[in-house]
Write a structure and sequence with these properties.
mainly beta; five-stranded mixed β-sheet; binds calcium ion
Length: about 600
């Protein structure tokens, strides 16, 4: 870099720093700085994002030795830790790979408070969330039902449960909760992800922990590319088993992995996503594995699961080859009431889509839906299913990038841009440059979470990338479609309403979603359940089936707002909300 260029880039950096601190509306006007669409120049793509900076860089301690955890970091969560109605951001971060200690602030996990104007303030130190070890995944859930969402962090050899004290601080309660014990069989595990799920609908969130491979940094296998160390194929490492911890309700968890039928299935787990695929009222668990078949744990009740991946057709893609299963999401793409599965994998493996056929089986429709052709050249980590253009059809965001180190850049595309796949009634349009993702350099993207950061009803994204700044993508899609969000409050059910299934009928169209904070790679999105409504200004009928079994009906719900919904105490209730006089954006209530 010649000095003149260096000077220019420093100036640009200073300008960017300033933009970070200025109000959101002005930042939109200056959006052209980031290559996004300016206020004058409306994007033509139906789904479009503009880049915003945030002062976090993921540091996984990349070394020339290429230790496996270095390329698997980067979980991120969105959740409203202080209950001010605006989703905040928590990033996990690495540590020194040799000591597995965060011996520098560059390795700290970070909590950012959402100021509401598109800017975020780092509140990590006050919150007590710096962390201690090499962290990877994060799962958000209010495990003690006190109204404040808590944080589970999955890491290499050490997981952490942080209790949210409700005053902006968190306490590490891992030991007390019984979650700090090394596994009897496997010893210290490398956990990459977790999911909060109330497996027995007793109102207490249980914890499913996804463990990856058996790893010892001092015994790393020798893998090379062009005579340089390279990250090894997972076949060089032994499998480990996932874990299921039952919430006893007194702040203590019991490991029931063995009795529950989870332990009998060791794998190389990468992510877990949750849905009740057969609509029997019990949440089921899908687990992706790296170069192994996927698992689908059917919940049989009484804290028992059976693994039905092969039986139901989700273990492998139809070509029958093992793929590098990465992140997943498990939601209804076809508005038929049965949640479908999407997972990300590496190039030449495609991003498989399994369509749920009335709860009894899954049909792989990757090729038929056009996804094979679109995703074959891509590598991806996170999958997040959400309706980004509010047309009533859920789209698929994939954070892209390869597992390989930059040394392999001559052979494969290591750094990649992100892509959103727009749902065209079951077919897909891959939007990359069109969606604005070319505004930032391609990276090895990892974790991703979805939230409406600025309250405009358009779902935004936060994405991490290895050895690079995190990315905020503000949704500035051009349409004026309507939307509604449900912020659930369980009473008999868990406070977060995780597992609640919502059916919305608007202008004769029916759609479904459910509350789950597990989506993406190592990531968690703990936000209200979002529906795009297209032209409809009113949701005519809303049916909420709570995990307790309570069915709640709401009628004539005016769109374009977040509706706070409390689980009623009666068995079945029908409530109508009066249409609001003017277009309101926030804080309507139903009970
Ligand atoms: Ca709590
Ligand atoms: Ca089920
Ligand atoms: Ca859509
Ligand atoms: Ca937004």
């Amino acid at each position: 870099m010649v000095p003149a260029q260096a000077e220019t880039s420093r100036k640009i950096k200073r300008r960017r720093d300033r933009v970070f601190a200025i109000p959101f509306s002005l930042a939109i006007l200056l959006g052209v700085l980031f290559g996004g669409a300016s206020a004058q120049q409306k994007p033509s793509s139906p789904i479009h994002f503009s880049s915003r900076p945030i002062d976090f860089s993921l540091d996984s301690s990349e070394t020339p030795q290429r230790h496996a955890p270095e390329t698997m970091a980067g979980g991120v969560a969105v959740f409203d830790y202080d209950r001010d109605g605006k989703p905040d951001i928590f990033f996990t971060n690495g540590a020194d790979i040799n000591t597995l200690k965060k011996d520098s602030p560059k390795y700290w996990n970070r909590l950012f408070h959402n100021n509401g104007d598109g800017t975020f303030t780092d509140v990590t130190e006050k919150a007590g969330l710096k962390g201690t070890g090499f962290d990877v995944g994060v799962a958000i859930g209010d495990y003690d039902n006190d109204g404040y969402d808590d944080i589970f962090v999955a890491g290499v050899y050490r997981n952490t449960l942080y209790h949210n004290n409700g005053n902006g601080t968190f306490t590490d309660v891992t030991e007390k909760a019984g979650l700090a014990r090394p596994d009897k069989q496997y010893g210290p595990l490398w956990s990459v992800a977790a999911a909060w799920v109330d497996i027995n609908n007793d109102g207490l969130l249980d914890l499913f922990v996804v463990n990856y491979i058996s790893w010892d940094g001092s015994k790393e296998p020798d893998c090379e590319f062009n005579r340089k160390p390279e990250y090894c194929h997972p076949k060089f490492y032994k499998e480990t088993a996932s874990q299921l911890f039952l919430n006893n309700g007194n702040g203590i968890f019991t490991d029931i992995s063995e009795q529950a039928g989870i332990r009998a299935h060791p794998g190389k787990g990468m992510s877990a996503c949750i849905a009740d695929y057969d609509n029997d009222g019990l949440p089921d668990i899908f687990v992706t594995n790296d170069k192994l078949f996927n698992f689908l744990y059917h919940n049989k009740g009484h804290n028992q699961f059976e693994e039905v991946g092969f039986e139901l057709g989700v273990a492998l893609p139809e070509h029958g080859n093992l793929i590098s299963g990465m992140g997943c999401d498990f939601r209804d793409l076809y508005n038929d009431g049965y949640p479908d599965i999407v997972l990300a994998a590496l190039q030449k493996e495609t991003f498989p889509i399994y369509r749920n056929v009335r709860g009894g089986a899954f049909e792989e429709i990757t090729a038929r839906s056009g996804m094979t052709v679109l995703s074959d050249p891509m590598s991806g980590y996170s999958v997040n299913i959400a309706d980004f253009d509010n047309d009533g059809w859920k789209d698929i965001f994939v954070s892209r990038g390869d597992v390989a180190s930059p040394n392999m850049a001559g052979r494969i595309r290591v750094d990649q841009p992100n892509t959103v796949f727009r749902n065209l009634n079951g077919k897909w349009a891959a939007l990359t440059e069109e969606a604005g993702f070319g505004a930032r350099p391609p990276r090895r993207h990892r974790g991703a979470a979805v939230a409406d950061f600025d309250g405009d009803g358009k779902l935004d994204l936060v994405v991490t990338a290895l050895s690079a700044p995190a990315e905020i993508w503000m949704n500035d899609s051009p349409g004026t479609n309507h939307w509604i969000e449900f912020a659930l409050q369980g009473t008999k059910s868990n406070r977060d309403g995780i597992g609640a299934r919502i059916k919305v009928t608007a202008a004769g169209k029916v759609q479904f979603n459910h509350m789950s904070t597990a989506s993406g790679y190592a990531s968690s999105s703990a936000v209200p359940v979002h529906f795009g409504l297209g032209d409809a200004r009113v949701a005519d009928e809303v049916e909420i089936r709570w995990p307790s079994g309570t069915v709640q009906m709401l009628k004539n719900i005016v769109a374009d707002r977040v509706l706070q919904v409390k689980e009623p105490l009666g068995a079945v209730t029908v409530l109508e909300t009066q249409p609001a006089p003017a277009r309101q954006t926030k804080n309507a209530h139903a009970q």
